[in-house]
Fold this protein.
Amino acid sequence: MKLETRKEEIIKTATKLFKEKGYSAVTMRDIAKAMGIKAASLYNHINSKQHILRDIIISLAEEFTNGMQTVQLSEVSSIEKLRLIVALHVKITANSTYGMASLNNDWMHLEEQLDYYLELRDTYEENFRNILREGIKKNEIINSNLEIMLFSMLSTLRSLYLWIPKKEDLNTEELTQNLSHMLINGINK
Amino acid sequence: MKLETRKEEIIKTATKLFKEKGYSAVTMRDIAKAMGIKAASLYNHINSKQHILRDIIISLAEEFTNGMQTVQLSEVSSIEKLRLIVALHVKITANSTYGMASLNNDWMHLEEQLDYYLELRDTYEENFRNILREGIKKNEIINSNLEIMLFSMLSTLRSLYLWIPKKEDLNTEELTQNLSHMLINGINK
DNA sequence: AATAGTAACTAACAAGTGTTAGTTTATTGT
DNA sequence: ACAATAAACTAACACTTGTTAGTTACTATT
């Protein structure tokens, strides 16, 4: 059983750099330099640049998939399910702020795992859509354009990684509360 | 007076490719190939790859700056101003779907013009913030966390480019209407 | 017919790319 | 003390990158 701490350090460093400049603009020499070693040394711990991206994106995508599963199984109202989804996004994003940038912006650079990623994403969106649909059916949610509601909420949740790091004193509970309220009730007085 | 149609074709082609893979991952040979010519031929019309990015991003950023100016000068309620901002985003995004991807994801690859871009962006956000602030003061908008409201609305508006192309039968009027309603009143019944 | 402008080409460059091979050094468990 | 492992190194590879130089062909204006 390996501890793999060095490998994790590399992935962590790469994740930070990927957020700043994107996967394609970051070179193996950039990653090595940030760690104070030579590029060739990275290959004692990782298989390829592509594998780093894969590790970052797929693990996050699976976290979302698992979280959505839990939300679906919980026996609460549709509105409450939406609140749980907001909480899920806040939690994952707060723990992996940098990685969320890759998930959002570099997924198209996945090679072998691209199809798998797209499958996870499509399924996630479809589950989200179904929760909204159910809410409309049960008269908890306004019967407005389904896709626009989905798009609007997902956009905000997916962009969270851009805002969260700015708050030093992040209270995830409070953020979840405020954000849910805004997405559900709007800003009108 | 030059017509520059060829230059515009190059920028248009590049914009499309930039949206698919990002600025860094698109090569001059990619752009040339998409036009059926050789990479060196591009330089008869453009100065550099960097200048292409500059053209795409700065012109869009200035469009937003100008639009915001108009909104500020209009003598309507704060809520109505927000509706005008939504309309501005929908209009620009519908006209430049591909370019919006660069504006959102590749601005950090700007070189000489990076500071200018950041200035435009900061000013835009500050103006947006002031409209919300005024709305709260005049009791049109709930007195909730200002930054979260700003973040939430901007995220949705900035992500519009990802959804708009999926709608073939885009009715910008209707989209603006639905989106404004959602952002202002939420989804609660 | 001569000129200028537009737009393509081939060939080449210097620098940078991800990655491999082979080696050295330090640490750790027996 | 020995062997094994982890983790770094140098050197090099084949390929790709943005870009320049110099040239050729076509078209429109004088």
Remarks:
- Residues 49-185 of chain A form a domain with the Tetracycline Repressor; domain 2 fold (CATH 1.10.357.10).
- Chain A has a mean pLDDT of 94.
- Residues 1 and 176 of chain A are 38 Å apart (CA to CA).
- Chain A has one domain: 49-185.
